[in-house]
Amino acid sequence: MKFTVERAALLKALAHVQNVVERRNTIPILANVQIAVREGALTLAATDMDIAINEAVPAQASRNGATTAPAHTLYDIVRRLPEGAAIEFDFPGGDAQLSLRAGRFSTSLNCLPVDDFPAMAEGNLTHRFGLPANELRGLIDRTRFAISTEETRYYLNGIYLHAAESGGVALLRAVATDGHRLARVELPLPDGAKGMPGVIVPRKTVNELRKLIEETSDPVEIALSDTKIKLAFGGVALTSKLIDGTFPDYERVIPKENDRVLRVPNRAFSDAVGRVAAISSEKTRAIKLSLSKGHLVLSASSPDQGQATEEVDDLSYDAQPLEIGFNHRYLLDVTDQVQGETVELRFADGAAPTTVQDAGDASALFVLMPMRV
Amino acid sequence: MTAARQLAFGFAHAPSLAAADFCRGAANEAALAMIERWPAWPARRLALWGPDGSGKTHLLAIWCARSSARALCPADLARDEAPALIPASGHVALDDADCVLDEPALLHLLNLVSERGGSLLLTAREAPARWGTRLADLRSRLRSITAVALGPPDEALLRAVLTKLFADRQLAVAPPTIDYILRRIDRSLAAARELVARLDRIALARGVQIGAALVREALAREEDGGGEYSVTVSPGEPKLL
Amino acid sequence: MDRESEAQWVRVRARLREEVGEVEYRSWLRQMVLQEVSGDEVVVALPTRFLRDWVNSHFGDRLRSLWQAENRKVRRVAVIVRAQGAALAEPVDPAAATVPGGANGAAVPATATTPRASAHAGQRLGARAAARAEEAARNGGDPRHDFSAPLDPRLTFDAFVVGKPNEFAFACARRVAEHGPTAGFNPLFLHGGVGLGKTHLLHAIAWRLRERDPGKRVAYMSAESFMYRFIAALRSENAMAFKEQLRAVDVLMVDDVQFLIGKESTQEEFFHTFNALVELGKQVVVSADKSPADLAGLEERLRTRLGCGMVADIHATTFELRVSILQAKTAALGTTVPPKVLEFLAHKITSNVRELEGALNRVVAHAQLVGRPITIESSQEVLRDLLRAHDRRVTIEEIQKRVAEHYNIRLAEMTSARRARMVARPRQVAMFLAKQLTQRSLPEIGRKFGGRDHTTVMHAVSRVTELMQSDLSFAEDVELLRRMLES
Questions:
Q1: What's the total number of domains in chain A?
Q2: What is the CATH number of domain B28-149?
Q3: How far apart are the first and last CA of chain C?
Q4: For residues B188 and C212, what is the distance between their CA atoms, to the nearest angstrom?
Q5: Strand order in the sheet with A98-102
Q6: Closest approach of chain C CAs to the CA of B88, in angstroms?
Q7: Which residue range is the domain that position A101 belongs to?
Q8: How distant is the Cα of B117 from the closest Cα of chain C, in angstroms?
Q9: CATH code for B155-224?
Q10: Mind telling me how many Å the CA of C132 is from chain B's nearest CA?
């Protein structure tokens, strides 16, 4: 195998694939990136056996072949090479080392045989559909903050992607929850997704995918079965296992009849929450909302630091008085996702789930469980 | 405000009643053997009795799946007369049969199922002979039913049941934690069920993993007769097992 | 899946089966299905979450090393949940799964083909009983009998055990069966306490009548079912058809007429049917738990009519009759039960024949299930709910007291800190028994033994278990204590 590649193109691809490689590995070859030239085309690949990434890189290849080399080391080297450098790789085959040259710099890396590199079988992917990258970004951004990070409850460690129906409209829904808050975002169901199995996409896959599609405007091709998902765009393909679990029936925790409605300018509200919360105890992070007709007072206190209150203006609230506490972090996570001017909160009482929505956008719904204060 | 506590969603879970998930042990070996022996039940009637959590409802579901029996609860008997309760298969299973208040209704059900050639399964906390039945005809029928007790679990069964209870709730709990629990709880299936439900609730409300530390705390709270945690239940919450 | 992987999988399963033993294998591993082998990873599916979790935590490492021995490329074995097709699932017990097809139709009584006949080990039906069973199976299709409830093929005169308390009723029933209305017993009214054999005699009469004259329409039903049908006929405005059907039978037998008490309109209908049939010279047989005169709550004129034929009562059983019944019943079950056990049952279960038969059934079924001989002790255990109103709950305090008495040490030593063997060993025995006989947690047991730790209890349990294996007389001692505490 022999090829020459431009530093920037290689660095970008290496940055992608080395993210998938775990820092600590009991299986040595999982620390390596697979470098392969087949029919003159260069691809890099890495896997942790749950996720596999494959990326095509433009290069001038003069000989086919393949090997694997330590991913993090290779990334470190390439990162330190001067901008615009042309890097030449040469791997004669067999037990030889991989040699790398760029200008006056040269190195030889120990390799592991490419035959030992784990291949992830995609299996039979039964459903295929496309999503514009910006819509996929919106789906991920507005749900992933609610993914549970607690591993005991493995079925909550991802985004639940499934086909749903509401008022006769077929929808693609993404839902995430950690048991305290829940985010539900929906899009019209793309062609090809009809009848798809509901799948739970693991948190790590979601995060890797989000990094990969940060800058692209290409549509993302999604293919899935009930055990695997594959996402592909512009030469990159990410294949991942899905979580072997059942997402809870989340609809039953979404209140439909909360009739105490607060509408408040999102920016002013979240700024006030941030200010008052500065005093809230680190342990509980509680902030209290005291509502009465036309009034909202935020307050927090901490035994160490004292207390803070702020009254918020320009709001509408026309129901019975109410006091309710929330983890301020959860409130801010949600208001961060609201793009419009006004945020709308609907309450039942101080101990029941509260819904939060962008007053001008029904595609995303957030549900928060309060704190008893 | 230091006592502020995060509340959690009341997600539901459905305990598996699949035949493959029934944990076998000396405590339920006779009961399971009788279920597997159907239709060879003396007089086509069987009663299973034992404390909460001992697997009566699970065995009942296994039998209903095999026999196409209809599963009834005491409320069904209060609502409908016997002829309307018997399905095409002729077979009937009655859970919590000791909670039936209307003795003639139960007698009629027993008689009609026999008359139609069906089989009948009763489950209860106590043996039918001990229900204190007043109606003599019913009493003698109940006392003549083959009644099989579900006994207290041994350690192996308790370990399997704990694992199943966690699996039902999709909680990944490491075997050492299960051993830790085994050495410390009352050795009854009801205690196991109660503790697992409690651990699930506390862990969800706190957002922490289920390990030895949480178990210790949950057991200590049990002795105090309650807990500081709480969970809100959304409207229309069905009965959780 | 390639054939090599399949072959490897067969070997992995076989070796695992050998390692863990048949019981473990059947409980947990039998339902494993090889899902895929993708070079480095083997995916094994199980049908439920519980099986997945159990196999993962208890057999995951073994599965991986066994696979690696077969295929060195395998780095990981993933166990997942995958519902299996119904066709793949093995029945719980293949032997018991052969349910005769006819048993599902309500009209075809399972009595005929299923329960005793096919499955009770050793049960043999005589040729006549088999013929009756066949007839019972045909019942559904035979318009002559579709008004009748199905008859139980076991309930014949041959199977009725006669003794002093029931010989008169038996003789009357036989006479009606042989001679019909010409016997002059119209109606025949059989009465006696519950479970003494009234229903048996009614079925026996019906079988004999049908046997003698297959053209006869013999309708047997319980009073409740008479009522249900009458109400159903009224609701569907079919009352006329119901009446006509009733009046068209040659013999009407109604069981347990005491259930008509309080049901005025049903009583009224029954009264008219009764009169019409008797006037037409058709035989009527009725049973109740009391004599006509004692059926307070039944209309006076009905009571009078019921008592104007032959009234025969069945008395409570005697010890001799109970033993005879048990002997006959044992023979019918095709099994043997030690005479001492039969006498024990006849002595303990005195209430009625139904309960006596039920008790015998239980004792026999249990012995077959566990494959152990029938003894008085095993019968006592199996029938403990019949023999005792409550199960005894042994307490830790009782155990400590009994054990201290047995080893002749002071009760205070159970909680003392002394570690001399003469007090430590009995204390360990008591802890062992507390774990065996109560459901208290190990920390709780430790607390009751002078605030000891649960690890001390665990140590005591394993020490006593060890000793019981090596020292036979010690084992007998502990066993004796256990039995004393349990009885």
A1: 3
A2: 3.40.50.300
A3: 60
A4: 59
A5: A60-63, A2-6, A86-90, A98-102, A105-109
A6: 6
A7: 2-116
A8: 4
A9: 1.10.8.60
A10: 15
Whether the Cβ atoms of residue A34 and residue A45 lie closer than 8 Å to each other: yes
Q: Please check whether residue A373 lies inside any domain of the structure.
A: no
Q: Is the fold of B28-149 the same as that of B155-224?
A: no
- The domain boundary, picked from C337, C359, C387, lies at C387
Q: Where are the domains of chain B?
A: 28-149, 155-224
Q: Which of A152, A351, A369 sits opposite B171 (nearest CB)?
A: A152
- Among the partner-chain residues B40, B140, B147, the one whose CB lies closest to the CB of C120 is B40
**One-letter amino acid of C239:** A
**Residue A91 is part of a domain; what is its CATH number?**
3.10.150.10
Interface of B with A in 160-189 (CB under 8 A): 170-173
Together in a domain, C292 and C324: no
Number of domains in chain C: 4
Torsion over CA: A41, A46, A50, A51 (sign): negative
| Of A318, B217, B189, B102, nearest in space to C439 by CA | B189
Nearest CA in chain B to C146: B116
Q: Which of A224, A252, A280 is the last residue of a domain?
A: A252
- pLDDT (tens digit, 0 to 9) for every residue of chain B, 241 residues total? 446 789 999 998 889 999 999 999 999 999 999 999 999 998 899 999 999 989 999 999 999 999 999 999 999 998 888 888 999 999 999 999 999 989 999 999 999 998 888 999 999 999 999 999 999 889 999 999 999 999 899 999 999 999 999 999 999 999 999 999 999 999 999 999 999 999 999 999 999 999 999 999 999 876 554 444 444 333 333 333 3
pTM of the model: 0.85
Residue-number span of the structural domain to which C296 is assigned: 119-313
Q: What chain C residue is nearest to A30 in terms of C-alpha separation?
A: C75
Pairing of strands C188-192, C283-288: parallel
Largest Cα–Cα separation, chain C: 93
Residue A123: closest CA among chain C residues belongs to which residue?
C36
CB contact under 8 Å between C365 and B166, yes or no, is no
